[in-house]
Amino acid sequence: MKKSLQTILKIVFNKYLIVLVLFAVIMVTSENHNLLHRYKNKKTIESLEKQISYYKNETAENKEKLDELRSDSSNLEKYARERYQMKKVDEDVYVIIQENEK
Q1: What are the start-end ranges of the H helices in 13-34?
Q2: Is residue 31 classed as helix, strand or coil in its secondary structure?
Q3: Using the 8-state DSSP alphabet, how is residue 92 labeled?
């Protein structure tokens, strides 16, 4: 029993183990290099990168729509009629709303 206690004490007081444990404690509790802060920052960066890709796609789609509207006046007229419900002076516009069936 005494030998097993001595071997356990040797392992616990091993200088490499003490340094490793001390290093782990410092890494977990350090203000600037805290592992919790690193994890949160990583998640924030991933979220922002997703937003960047989303807005790049949106910008590309909007540029395509803008080019289409600028290229042909009939497309511009169609867009104005659909989006803003514009009409010519001598015509009537009927808006048909379909009810969703439950």
Answers
A1: 15-29
A2: coil
A3: -
Task: State in Å, rounded, how far the first CA of the chain is from the last one.
Answer: 77
Q: Give the residue extent of every domain in the chain.
A: 1-30, 38-87
Q: What sections of the chain are H helices per DSSP?
A: 2-12, 15-29, 35-71, 73-84
CA 14 vs CA 27, 48, 84: distances in Å: 20, 45, 77
Answer for the pair 61, 68: CB distance below 8 angstroms, yes or no: no
pLDDT score of 52: 98
pTM exceeding 0.85: no
pLDDT: is 51 or 12 the higher one? 51
* Angstrom distance (rounded) from CA 6 to CA 12: 10
Sign of torsion, CA 79 84 88 90?
positive
Structure tokens at 95: 């808006």
Say what the pLDDT of residue 101 is: 67
How large is the average pLDDT for residues 4-22? 80
